[in-house]
Amino acid sequence: MRAPVLNSLTSEQVRAAAEQAASALPQGTRAQVDLGRRADVRSDLALITVPTLIVVTTADKDLAGG
After folding, report:
1. Mean pLDDT for the chain?
2. How would you write the pLDDT of the chain (66 residues) with one tens digit per residue?
3. Within a domain: residue 28?
4. Which Gene3D superfamilies match (predicted)?
């Protein structure tokens, strides 16, 4: 298995790539990401009564084991 490409880049190259990618994001993306970081919906999950797929990042520190 190959290492992720980002691991082979210098910090300056990663910064440049992030800036380039950021310039292509739609307006409002920053606010949406901020909301996602602040919103805590864990108490709402118990209210869901239908089969549901909940998607989170593998780096979500609020999850057990995360």
Report:
1. 82
2. 566 777 888 999 989 988 998 888 899 988 988 898 888 888 998 899 999 987 877 766 665 554
3. yes
4. alpha/beta hydrolase
Q: Is 14 left (phi over 0), alpha (psi -120 to 50) or beta?
A: alpha
Structure tokens at 58: 């593998």
Phi-psi region of 55 (alpha: psi -120 to 50; beta: other; left: phi over 0): beta
For the range 19-27, what are the long-range contacts, defined as Cβ-Cβ under 8 Å and sequence gap of 24 or more?
A: none
Which residue bears the tokens 């082979």? 8
Whole-prediction pTM value? 0.43
30, part of any domain: yes
Total domains in the chain come to 1
Residue with tokens 């998607």: 55
Q: Which tokens sit at 13?
A: 């190259």
